[in-house]
TrEMBL record:
Pfam families given in the database record: Methyltransf_3
SUPFAM superfamilies associated with the record: S-adenosyl-L-methionine-dependent methyltransferases
Source species of the chain: Nepenthes gracilis
Protein name, as recorded: Caffeoyl-CoA O-methyltransferase
Keyword rRNA processing set for record: no
Biological process terms in GO annotation: methylation
Family label: Belongs to the class I-like SAM-binding methyltransferase superfamily. Cation-dependent O-methyltransferase family.
Transmembrane regions listed in the UniProt entry: none
Organism lineage: Eukaryota, Viridiplantae, Streptophyta, Embryophyta, Tracheophyta
């Protein structure tokens, strides 16, 4: 499972070894290694170079309050928490508690547990609950979406209400292992539904007047959307 979209794997290894691994936080490294040891789907973790990019973005934005959909063992959540000021907050939603409980000792070791609120459950339900609560409307600086691809387009509508004007919604895996340009007939069944959903999403985001957007060729594709109104 090769997550990078560069043509040369040697070039990607160069980026990781020369630039990314030396700057990876010790607890992120330990969490990544523990996840790789425990799970055979550890490829779901945010790539290290993408994590460094997101960390810098969060700091440039001066983000304080963020929301993440799709936690897995918590690599991206811990990466975000480490990038926020001491009074920062991350709301982290995942339907699989066993996954994110794996990350909690590493989050504690990094001294970041006071910044993270986990919500266990289905993301759509959790987002609708936040909307119903009313207080959270337009309150988030940043949202990171890394869960079920078929629902990204639905999350988009809800997150446009939860993220403040000028805030960023970031969608991960928008190039879906390069399959967005592969003829559907050659796409393995596992990738197909997500591929279809992401092809629709990418076109939709490109013309959505409520945002400005930029699809970055980092990791497996990261689309940044900045809310305009
Ligand atoms: C790609 S992984 C997230 C990786 C994580 N961002 C990281 O850096 O390690 C996707 C996660 O989304 C969760 N997920 C998938 N569909 C979901 C849904 N409908 N509601 C809540 N969580 C969901 C899965 O349980 C899984 O942990």
């Amino acid at each position: 499972m090769n997550k990078n979209i560069l043509q040369s794997d040697a070039l990607y290894q160069y980026i990781l070894k020369t630039s990314a691994y030396p700057r990876e936080h010790q607890q992120l490294k330990e969490l990544r290694e523990a996840t790789e040891e425990k799970y055979n789907n550890s490829w779901m973790i945010l790539p290290v170079d993408e994590g460094l990019f997101m960390s810098m973005l969060l700091k440039i934005m001066n983000a304080k309050k963020t929301i993440e959909i799709g936690v897995f063992t918590g690599y991206s959540v811990l990466n975000t928490a480490l990038s926020l000021p001491d009074n920062g907050k991350v709301i982290a939603i995942d339907m699989n508690k066993e996954y994110y409980e794996t990350g909690i000792p590493f989050i504690k070791k990094a001294g970041m547990e006071h910044k993270i609120n986990f919500i266990h459950g289905n993301a759509m339900q959790a987002l609708n609950d936040l909307i119903a609560n009313g207080k959270e409307m337009g309150s988030f600086d940043f949202a990171f979406v890394d869960a079920d691809k078929v629902n990204y387009i639905n999350y988009h509508e809800i997150l446009l209400k939860l993220v403040k004007v000028g805030g960023i919604i970031a969608y991960d895996n928008t190039l879906w292992y390069g399959s967005v340009v592969a003829p559907e007939i050659f796409t393995a069944q596992y990738y197909r539904d997500s591929r279809e959903a992401l092809v629709v999403l990418n076109s939709f985001l490109a013309t959505d007047s409520r945002i400005e957007s930029s699809l970055l060729s980092i990791g497996d594709g990261l689309t940044l959307c900045r809310r305009l109104y």
